[in-house]
Specification:
Largest sheet: none
Structural class: mainly alpha
Helix content: 40-55%
Number of strands: 0
Shape: elongated
Oligomer: single chain
Number of helices: 9
Order of helices and strands: HHHHHHHHH
Distance between the termini: 62 Å
């Protein structure tokens, strides 16, 4: 049986468009679910216990992340900062021994990045520290983390919401180069 052309165009075109939009929505939904999936928490070459340093000992973030108030990046501390204490404290523990081995070889530890914004975003820790934004605002309760985990999406929408809440600038040039 042959269907008239106008019946096909009235029925087939809307069905094809509906199927295309349904497929696009499914893809977008899958991408959103993947983006918000398990928090990023890579294993590190040396298990650094923030639960002890920031938790039990209550060391401020700036004790180790020396450049955070002066530099665009928080920077991972040089091993010499770690060795200031660990020459004598907890010297026999396996993770401290790994640290000492890196120092003895003159080899830096290759830490796996947890928090990162795209290269076209100009983010500076210095500005946020000077504005009084607590580290936990973006990084979560690090003192309670057995392994550092990205707990905030660090997306443009998330940052803009934070800026609006705090009355910070939302002009595009504030963050984009």
């Amino acid at each position: 049986m042959k269907l008239p052309l106008d019946l096909l165009s009235r029925w087939l075109l809307p069905m094809a468009l509906a199927a295309w939009f349904a497929g696009a929505l499914a893809v977008l939904g899958a991408l959103a679910a993947w983006r918000e999936a398990d928090p990023i928490a890579p294993s590190q070459p040396i298990d650094f216990p923030h639960t002890i340093h920031a938790g039990t000992l209550s060391l401020p973030c700036t004790f180790c992340h020396l450049e955070v108030a002066r530099s665009p990046q928080a920077t991972v501390p040089p091993l010499s900062v770690c060795m200031t204490c660990h020459e004598t404290i907890a010297a026999g523990r396996p993770e401290v021994e790994k640290l000492k081995a890196h120092v003895a070889r003159g080899e830096p530890v290759t830490w796996r990045r947890v928090h990162e914004v795209p290269s076209f975003v100009r983010f500076t820790h210095k500005r946020h520290v000077k504005a009084g934004v607590a580290c936990a605002t973006c990084h979560g309760d690090v003192a309670a983390m057995a392994r550092i985990t990205r707990v905030r999406p660090l997306t443009m929408g998330w940052c803009i919401t934070c800026h609006r809440t705090r009355g910070a600038p939302t002009d595009c040039a504030t963050c984009h180069v």
